[in-house]
Amino acid sequence: MAKSQSEGNSQQESFGTAKVYINNAQSILNKATGFIDYYDFTLNPYRGCQYGCSYCYAAAFSPNSKMRQDWGNWVIIKKNAVEILEKELQKWQNKNPDKPASIYMSSVTDPYQPIESKQMLTRSLLETMVKYQPILVIQTRSPLIAKDVDILQQFQRLRINMSIPTGSEQVRKDFEPRTPSISARLKAIETLRYSIPYQKDRDIRFSVTITPLLPTFPEHQIEFIRKLEIVDRVVIQEFHATQTRSLVAGTRQEAETIKQKYSWWYDNERVNYLKFKENLVSLLSDIEIKEGKEGFGFE
């Protein structure tokens, strides 16, 4: 195998447009901090993300500046993730026999990005986790998650967050052109919602995270919001502040450039944000509407 210039990872054949690397991780459960410090751990099956969304703060945590600039065109597979996870969950259980670990999957990648269809690494991790029954939140923008319903329904405490930052397809194509369509994501979360039967001893919840809130054309807003009635929570959040330092999470310049196309929204961003929130509250009266960090907890 040829060695890459990415921290000595072994490079494999490409998957789609992305270069694929293999790496043995030192750990798979990392202490959750900052925005998601509600949890004990974050779990990222992969490093990097093929979706390469223009605004994604996770690009800041690329191995080096070159890979940061090439965000979306590479992914690192944590080859030993399942083995490490088993050891770490067993260690937690030994120390905390009466307290399940709480895990946020994932904070800096999408666990269901396209390569998951081939690697099924996230699925293997779920199969390990279900034996230990952690409190688990899965964050994704991919309909691939629906294929794992057989495992997901075995969890006792689970929240699935589907990321849908806009209700307008043109906006999606501008800001995140490699991602699945809005309709595909809505169909996936609906499929999961109605495929997992209610049980008294199980607490499985569903959210749509509109984070960051991207423009939605006025003529699309009402129809889009009404389609969110299938979940129990909707989360909204504005853009991160822009950062120019290479290893600080923030809105990337790529997204700032695209925002200029939508001056009709961003020239009055706060007003449009509040109007959108008002529509959410009025149209989804039986659904939790939460903002920012508050919306990313399990409860």
What can be said about the biggest beta sheet? 8 strands, mixed
Number of domains: 1
Residue runs with pLDDT of under 50 for 5 or more positions: 1-6, 242-249
- What Rg do the Cα atoms give? 19 Å
Task: Report the β-strand fraction as a percent range.
Answer: 15-25%
How many H/I helical runs?
11
Task: Look at the structure and give the mean pLDDT.
Answer: 92
Shape: globular
> Could you give the count of β-strands?
12
CATH class descriptor name: Alpha Beta
CATH architecture: Alpha-Beta Horseshoe
In N-to-C order, the SSE pattern is: EEEEEHEHEHHEHEHHEHEHHHE
DSSP helix fraction: 25-40%
**Alpha-carbon distance between the termini?**
46 Å
Helix-strand category: alpha/beta
Short description:
By secondary structure, the chain is of the alpha/beta class. The protein has eleven helices and twelve strands. Helix 2 (81-95) packs parallel to helix 4 and helix 8 packs parallel to helix 11 (269-283).
Please explain how this structure is put together:
The chain is an alpha/beta fold and 299 residues long. The protein has one domain: pyruvate-formate lyase- activating enzyme (Alpha-Beta Horseshoe), CATH 3.80.30. Helices cover 32% and strands 18% of the residues. The chain has 11 helices and 12 strands. The strands form 2 sheets. It has an 8-stranded mixed β-sheet with strand order 3-4-7-8-9-10-11-12, covered by helices on one side. Strand 1 and strand 2 form a beta hairpin. Helix 2 packs parallel to helix 4 and helix 8 runs parallel beside helix 11. The longest helix is centred in the first third of the chain and has 15 residues. It is globular, with a radius of gyration of 19 Å. The termini are far apart. The N terminus is likely disordered.
